[in-house]
Amino acid sequence: MSLLSPRLRCAINAAARAHRDQVRKGSGIPYVSHVYAVMFLLSQVTDDEDILIAGLLHDTLEDVPEKYTAVQMEADFGLRVRHLVEDLTKIEHPSWQVRADAYIEHLEFHAAEEAVLISTADKLHNLMSIMDDLEEIGEGLWERFNAEKEKQLWWYAEINRVSTVRLGKNRLNEQLEGCVEKLKKSA
Predict the structure, then answer these.
(1) Residue 5 carries which DSSP code?
(2) What does the angle CA 81 – CA 82 – CA 86 come to, to the nearest 5 degrees?
(3) Would you say the pTM of this structure is higher than 0.85?
(4) Pick from 72, 50, 65, 25: which is nearest to 118 by CA?
(5) Furthest-apart CA atoms within the chain: distance in Å
(6) What's the CA angle centered on 68, arms 62 and 71, to 5 degrees?
(7) Coil/strand/helix, residue 157
(8) How many other C-beta atoms can be found within 10 angstroms of the C-beta atom of residue 143?
(9) How many CB atoms lie within 10 A of CB 2?
(10) Residue 164: how many other CB atoms lie within 10 Å
């Protein structure tokens, strides 16, 4: 079990500051709850502080680069954390499918294994949140997203496939697989 070191506390605060003005799609829940959940999920499978920190910061370069830059991240937490977060940053493209395909290909063939682990925790929490919201508000949930339910199902199944290929079975991709199967049954 990892201790809440000064470095990890600094990363928690950096994530809170960077995401302070964001909320989760359609829920009004402060976005920072997501990055904290990702760190928590990662802490169940690793004590590697760089991985936990990259989990906290995984969306900063993609979502709020003006609030927390790659240069600042490297200065605060080192090159390894910066590289892990960059491995998780999607390309900019107007097409959801092009972005999704490029991300899957990058995870499968180029990303560090640690980045794949972080992506698995990220997508697991996203899908857990979707399942919670689906129970609460029903099928109207899908209107929040840029891709319909079938594409979302494909996306999470592909992340799970890549994670299992790259990392073997672990607690996170087993949970992700369970959530994917639950979503399939709700289709």
Answers:
(1) -
(2) 120
(3) yes
(4) 50
(5) 46
(6) 95
(7) helix
(8) 9
(9) 14
(10) 17
Residue type, 179: C
- The three state secondary structure string of 65-127 is CCCCCHHHHHHHHCHHHHHHHHHCCCCCCCCHHHHHHHHHHHHHHCCCHHHHHHHHHHHHHHH
Place of tokens 């290909």: 105
Q: What are 153's two structure tokens?
A: 């199902």
Q: Which helix (H) or strand (E) holds 151?
A: helix 149-167
SS3 23: strand
CA distance linking residue 171 with residue 19, whole number of Å: 28
Can you state the angle between helices 113-137 and 49-57, rounded to 10 degrees?
50
The predicted-structure confidence for 26-50, as pLDDT tens digits, reads as follows 788 999 999 999 999 999 999 999 9
- Both structure tokens of 167: 């990392």
Asked if residues 166 and 107 have their Cβ atoms less than 8 Å apart, the reply is yes
Residues of the chain where predicted confidence (pLDDT) is lower than 70: 1-2, 187
Residue 134, CA atoms < 13 Å, CB-side half-sphere = 17
Q: How far apart are CA 116 and CA 158, in angstroms?
A: 12
